[in-house]
Amino acid sequence: MTVTQVVFYVLAAFTVGAAFIVVLATNIVHSAIALVFTFFGVAALYILLDAEFLAAVQVLLYVGGITILLLFAIMLTSRISARGVRILNEQAGISALVVFAIFALMAYANLRVVVPAGPPPPASYATASLGRLLLTTYVLPFEAVSILLLAAMVGAIILARREREKD
Amino acid sequence: MENALQRFYHAFALWGVPAVVPQLIVMLLVATVVILFIAVSVMFMIWWERKISAHIQVRYGPMRVGGWHGWAQSIADGIKLLLKEDIIPTGADKLVFALAPMVVFAAAFAAYVIIPFGPNLIVRDLNIGVLFYISISSLTVVGIIMAGWSSNNKYSVLGALRSAAQAVSYEVPLVVSVLGVIMTVGSLSMIQIVEAQQRIWFVIPQFFGFLVYLTAAIAECNRLPFDIPEAESELVAGFHVEYSGMRFAIFFLAEYANMFTVSAIATTLFLGGWHGPLLPPWLWFLIKTYFLIFVMMWLRWTLARLRVDQLMYLGWKVLLPLAFLNMGVTGLVLVLRG
Hints:
By secondary structure, chain A is an all-alpha fold. Helix content of chain A is 75%, strand content 0%. By secondary structure, chain B is mainly alpha-helical.
């Protein structure tokens, strides 16, 4: 095994382990904290693939933004952080079945893929070219996504406002 | 420096040792040097801050330990904190409580990877440079929330929540204020940003960017006038109320290490990094960085604390539009120049 492979397996085990804690922790704050480590593991895997920009953005948005907002929401919600919440309901068996089916499908697809021989194509991974593409070739999808996000934000604010008037 | 490194790797290759071994040795050495630098620099900064605060308040500050102006006071305090009993409150979530200081310190420590002390004195010139700092520093808030929540104390939870709100609001102007410099240079690499400032420091064309960055950076460090996460008159000490001894010392260390990082990044982006006449580059870099740290300490002991609503007003309605204006004007000038 090469060093890269060893590092990959260590990182993968770390990421999957943290993901298991996210799902299985009985305390929702523990889940959220484990989620931080999962995101970090994924960012490390990106770095292993030479996708540094993606890794930095992953940490910035998921760790610095989303998880913090998540923790914020958990702490502002009374009693949600109480210990000993039931994490499984009566549908555990069926969901396990579905999960294993998806896992088997993905494993099968991954094993069937033929990796082309020869060295992989050189990663043209310049942040500048990424930005240029985003503002030339892909400018329309980029703007469409921004409008979608803006609409979602306005919607969330309107919903929150209505809630307050009712109280 | 590069040559010595090559020779070191080569020597191991001759003996048939896989390349990982010397690489790990170099990594450990560099990490040790950085930790030593952080420790010494933080001890100096704490003594310096006590002296500055004292002189601003017309008193002397520490005068006895070590002889000359109490220079050894921080060392004595550090040893005292190391020897204190390690207390974990009964109601605390023990694992998260123990993990929180480590997360905060790891974030502060990792940021030193991209600080360019001199033309060759950088741990790693990442091509995502500035972005690496911005993303890794967001981990600090996670650590603070972990500390506040796991302490099982009203004051620490309130402090942690305030800190989260503050960090999320001030991260946006911070990132946008840096964009002006990045657009001018066309690169995120710290070395290239410094080299682009040979003729003119970016503080002149990017003056508003510099102001917004400095203000947002002070807020990110939770220092006065933005220290509402640990406002002692309302929250005792904020997120670290329950921490004592060594664990408290680690939070303190991380806070001052962050102050240094923030000032070093400002020096790199706006004050020309290591450029300067006569003196060696690393000395210029340290002089500029410690000057900015002095400015931060000066502001802390001069201004009063903001209220929560004033803090939010300043962040969203003053700094953010100013940062966007700066970015827009920079873009316009760059396009007109071609």
